[in-house]
Design goal:
four-stranded antiparallel sheet
């Protein structure tokens, strides 16, 4: 057998898994020269959540990142993760958009496209595979590995044969949650090698602690290429360490030929870089065998914990992780990978935070149940479907077959702020944030989210360098162990704090009666304090049954009614984006719209009245 080839993941999946996809291009480019001389089969450096993070948080042009990386890596193929008909967004796009996106990705520097579908619906992969072959690039037809009553080796072998017939150059196994065991991996690879004549890639997250063993057993059974991550961003929710596997294979028939000393120079660089992003580190990115049950993928866990932290609900992570497999079963056991991981994960969060399962159902879950993401692997829960979409017709064709060509329409909509076809495609992926990003870029007013040093955090608070989050309190001679796990939004008159009291999770409320000014940095800066009936945003607090609120903080995407409109219980009145998913907010009563306190683009929180309705 020839040597094992290696795809390095540190520029994409590594930091997506460990620091919520926050690494900036400026921290990638200085090390590219060393990465380029090592001799990787490819460097995964684009796609996945990086496009979204660039536009949403980092205020970087993702296409410019790709061009910069291509220039800095002249000798190494650049690999990207592409979500089939979803591309890098969260919906299906028409075939002409898929063709345009693949063409521009190739023109700007992508050599290898790792193409997957969250449903493993091969119909959703065909357009992307054909587009990659049309531009003469390498197409990896990818199996999204999962376990369920319907997912077995025969299932994945059958899918691999279909991908080979479509003209893929290789077959990839994408074990996004780290569910493979060594024995299962060996049997799967052996079966795939017997069934298809293409090279096989193995991609497995280390969340369950099994991935290095999975890689070795896969190699023993004929795998050709392994995905690994530099140890500075490896293991846990990420991937097996590149250096460790290179060392393990050195001197064997599978020797990678990679220089361990050069790899360790890269490690030293990225260890320093990672310190900059301390605020995005999470306690949920280590080894956690619960993933074998909840199946939350490595690329999602750091983002999920960060989003729950922003909701002031990080203490409820365990409840969410327990709810995720229940929602997944209700939806017919889809593999948990973008976008289905977000669809299932966000619905699980809503089920937990609202205190009632499916009291609020996201638009994406409704679309999923209507077949708009493709065929579910198993039957869905009929009661949940009825609750979400009633008797609406479920489509059975390839979802993209129902879409008219979109590029001309997108070009017309983006004409005022898009300068290139790449700009139009940015707008296509994320219309609202993409439009805002392009307008701000054109105006020269882009402002990335703050990257705080720990010293800067100290200066802003005017207090100790680190605020205590774990301490003992002694009261009447009895000592209690307190751990602060999260808090509600600052500025609230009655602010929730989430604590563990002697290991038991509790929610407490702190109501400010008086304030002490500790420094100019620590004061409220003249910010108006909310009155008892009004929040700090100026919106009224809910005080009667006609007050429409949101279950979690988010951004208003659409207001569907106006003052004076008649509405019936169950009508949608608002659409809110929370945790990257859109959720239609419905009225629980019939009546007349009295007042609307929000408009598109507003940020909102659960303690505010967004719309008031006069009951019939």
């Amino acid at each position: 057998m020839s040597k094992i080839h290696v795809t390095e993941l540190v520029l994409r999946d590594g930091h997506q898994s460990m620091i919520a996809t926050r690494m900036r291009t400026e921290d990638m480019l200085p090390i590219c020269g060393k990465l380029d001389e090592i001799g990787f089969w490819s460097l995964e450096a684009w796609g996945g959540a990086t496009f979204d993070a660039c536009v949403r948080f980092l205020k970087e042009d993702p296409w410019e990142r790709l061009r910069s990386l291509r220039k800095a890596l002249p000798n190494t193929p650049i690999n990207m993760l592409l979500r089939g008909q979803n591309l890098l967004g969260y919906r299906h796009y028409s075939d002409d958009v898929v063709q345009a996106f693949v063409k521009q990705s190739a023109n700007n520097g992508v050599d290898v496209f790792r193409i997957f579908d969250a449903m493993n619906d091969v119909r959703n992969l065909t357009a992307a595979i054909k587009a990659v072959k049309a531009v003469k690039k390498h197409a990896i037809g990818t199996l999204s590995f999962t376990t369920s009553p319907v997912h077995d080796i025969a299932y994945f072998v059958g899918m691999a044969k279909q991908l080979e017939a479509l003209g893929c150059d290789s077959i990839g196994v994408k074990d996004m949650a780290g569910l493979l065991t060594p024995t299962m991996a060996g049997e799967l690879v052996k079966a795939l090698k017997a069934a298809v004549s293409l090279p096989i890639h193995m991609h497995s997250h280390a969340t369950s602690g099994l991935a290095s063993m999975v890689m070795l057993r896969s190699i023993d059974n004929g795998v050709d290429i392994i995905d690994t991550c530099n140890s500075s961003f490896a293991e846990g929710a990420s991937h097996p360490s590149t250096e460790s596997l290179v060392a393990a294979l050195r001197g064997t028939q599978y020797d990678t030929g990679l220089d361990l000393g050069k790899l360790q120079e890269v490690t030293a660089y990225f260890k320093e870089v990672r310190r900059k992003y301390w605020q995005f580190e999470s306690e949920f990115t280590g080894v956690d065998t619960r993933v074998l049950v909840n199946q939350v993928p490595g690329g999602m866990i750091s983002n999920l914990s960060n989003q729950l932290k922003e909701q002031g609900a990080i203490n409820r992570m365990d409840e969410v992780l327990a709810e995720i497999p229940r929602v997944r079963e209700d939806l017919g056991f889809p593999p948990l990978v973008t976008p289905t991981s977000q669809i299932v994960g966000t619905q699980a969060v809503l089920n937990v935070l609202t205190g009632s399962r499916y009291k609020s159902i996201t638009n994406e879950v409704k679309n999923y149940l209507l077949g708009q993401y493709g065929q579910s692997p198993a039957a869905v829960n009929a009661e949940v479907r009825q609750l979400a979409v009633g008797n609406a017709e479920v489509i059975t064709c390839r979802p993209a077959d129902l879409l008219e060509p979109e590029m001309v329409k997108l070009q017309s909509e983006a004409e005022r702020f898009a300068n290139t076809e790449e700009d139009v495609l940015t707008y296509a992926m994320f219309p609202d944030i993409g439009k805002t990003f392009l307008q701000e870029r054109n105006a020269g007013s882009l402002q990335p989210e703050a990257l705080l040093s720990k010293d800067a955090a100290h200066q802003q608070t005017g207090a100790a360098r680190f605020a205590p989050t774990e301490f003992n309190i002694t009261l009447h001679g009895e000592t209690f162990h307190i751990q602060l796990t999260g808090s509600g939004h600052s500025g609230e008159e009655r602010r929730p704090y989430y604590v563990k009291l002697d290991g038991i999770s509790e929610e407490v409320f702190v109501e400010t009666l008086n304030e002490m000014e500790v420094s100019s940095a620590g004061s409220n800066g003249g910010k108006k304090k909310a009155s008892a009936g009004v929040t700090s945003s100026g919106r009224p607090r809910p005080n009667h049954e006609g007050c429409i609120t949101t279950a979690m903080p988010g951004t208003i995407v659409a207001v569907k009614v106006k003052a004076g409109d008649k509405v019936s219980a169950g009508d949608g009145v608002l659409v809110i984006e929370a945790m990257k998913m859109e959720n239609e907010i419905q009225t629980g009563i019939s009546g007349t719209v009295l007042a609307i306190h929000v408009e598109k683009g507003d940020s909102v929180t659960p303690d505010e009245t967004l719309i008031e309705i006069q009951p019939e």
